[in-house]
Amino acid sequence: MARVLIVDDERKMRRVLQILLEPLGLESVPSGSGEEALDLFRAEKFDLVLTDLKMPGMSGIELLSALRALDPDVPVVVLTAHGTVQTAVEAMKQGAFDYILKPFDVQTIELIIRNALELRQYRQENRFLKDKDQGPPTTVFENLVGGSAVMQAIYELIRQVAPAKTAVLITGETGTGKELVARAVHNLSPRCDKLFVPLNCAAIPQDLLESELFGHVRGAFTGAQMERTGKFELADGGTLFLDEIGDMAYPLQAKLLRVLQEGIVERIGSNKPIRVDVRVVSSTNRDLSTAIRDGTFREDLYYRLNVFHIHLPPLRERQEDIAALAQFFLEAFGREMGKGGLLLAADAPALLAGYPWPGNVRELRNLMERAAVLCTGTQVDANMLRLLLPGTTAAPAAEEASTPGSDNLQLGSAVEEVERKLILRALGVANDNKAEAARLLGVSERTLWYKLKRYAL
């Protein structure tokens, strides 16, 4: 159901427009001012805006300009009882879809609304086709990188399950790339032209998670000053990704189960059923079987979510993919920072393969970003990576250790010199911001201050 935002300072006019939209099968949300409408638009998803021209505070033209900045594709129809050629021209210059004088003919405004919504749909479809023609960044699996046997098996599982509506449960340690697998399932499915809506169940307070999932009506609880569309409604026709589903509170699991079984949601504070067609892909780093035995996760919900299971192994169990992943990230960050396609030196893969990677792919990505920031040449070698990886130390500077006749063959002094240079480089990149420099170096700010004092920097 398309949603229309009605903006008019006259309550009767708002009601007239709502009544007019009902037979068209459109959901309408009224607003009495431009400021309130702008807040609603930022919080909710709308397919069309009908706005009065002259209102106290923000005018219709000002609202139009602000809406176009937020979403250039949303059609805005301006209505006014004080129309002039000048205001009409100004409205069209600002990007209004049409300009209607009050009192208006019902059939005329219905036609304009239908045309505006069709334009919105065409714009969205064209954008999707354009993005699709350009192709994904690497393969159909986007940023999933790796040619190991275990990753090839995962690619095949994704290909098999993607065309169906089957619920998918993705398990694996934190940082293994579970959301990337979920996106690959969506991108290869018939739903790929609809929205992929991610929601991290562990990142949202439990008392707000229900509203995020199902939405709420105005006044449903303290602080609910406006209506909110839930993630299930936003994902209608597409895919909803519930990340860290194992952290969802037990009482809310029963409500989620009901929606999965019936395909109907109700916003908090409303008894109006809303039918949705959503594919649910979920993930967790917890052992849900243990959670079921402990009484913290519903067994019936587990079987509803775990129709098809994909397990992502930790990075330490697919060492043959580490170098390819590191090179992929390094090239991407190099281009992003204007340094071109940076390369791993020949001595780097062996060092990376020997590290346990407790943070998995996410930790490797973070390391490559820091290396790209600090790299002044075209390659990142093992010596630089030793300085950035926790628990490792730099090897002696090659040029100092191998120079004939050099008197400085002490390992400690060579390490200190390299460390001093990296600190200076990080401070330069961070514009002398100590907290940012510490982040780039992968050390605490307290450690950085100690090093600065030690090297008299």
Explain this structure to me?
The protein is α/β, with parallel strands linked by helices. It folds into three domains: 3-131, Response regulator (Rossmann fold, 3-Layer(aba) Sandwich); 149-313, P-loop containing nucleotide triphosphate hydrolases (Rossmann fold, 3-Layer(aba) Sandwich), CATH 3.40.50; 317-454, Orthogonal Bundle (Helicase, Ruva Protein, domain 3). Helix content is 47%, strand content 13%. It has 20 helices and 16 strands. It has helices spanning 11-21, 34-43, 60-70, 85-93, 106-134, 149-161, 178-187, 206-214, 231-234, 250-262, 288-294, 299-305, 322-336, 348-353, 360-374, 382-388, 398-401, 411-429, 434-441, 445-454; strands at residues 3-7, 27-31, 48-52, 76-80, 98-101, 168-171, 196-200, 215-216, 228-229, 239-243, 264-265, 274-275, 279-284, 308-311, 343-344, 379-380. It has a five-stranded parallel beta sheet with strand order 2-1-3-4-5, sandwiched between helices. The protein has a five-stranded parallel beta sheet with strand order 7-10-13-6-14. Strand 3 (48-52), helix 3 and strand 4 form a beta-alpha-beta unit. The longest helix is centred in the first third of the chain and has 29 residues, at 106-134. It is globular and about 85 Å long.
| Number of beta-strand segments | 16
**Chain-averaged pLDDT:** 84
Q: Which spans have pLDDT < 50 for at least 5 consecutive residues?
A: 132-140, 394-408
| CATH homology-level superfamily of the largest domain | P-loop containing nucleotide triphosphate hydrolases
Task: Count structural domains.
Answer: 3
Our estimate of the beta-strand percent is 5-15%
What is the name of the CATH class of the largest domain? Alpha Beta
Helix content: 40-55%
CATH architecture of the largest domain: 3-Layer(aba) Sandwich
The number of helices is: 20
Structural class: alpha/beta
Radius of gyration: 28 Å
Shape: globular
Query: In order across it, which strands form the biggest sheet?
Result: 2-1-3-4-5
CATH topology of the largest domain: Rossmann fold
Distance between the termini: 63 Å
| Major sheet characteristics | 5 strands, parallel
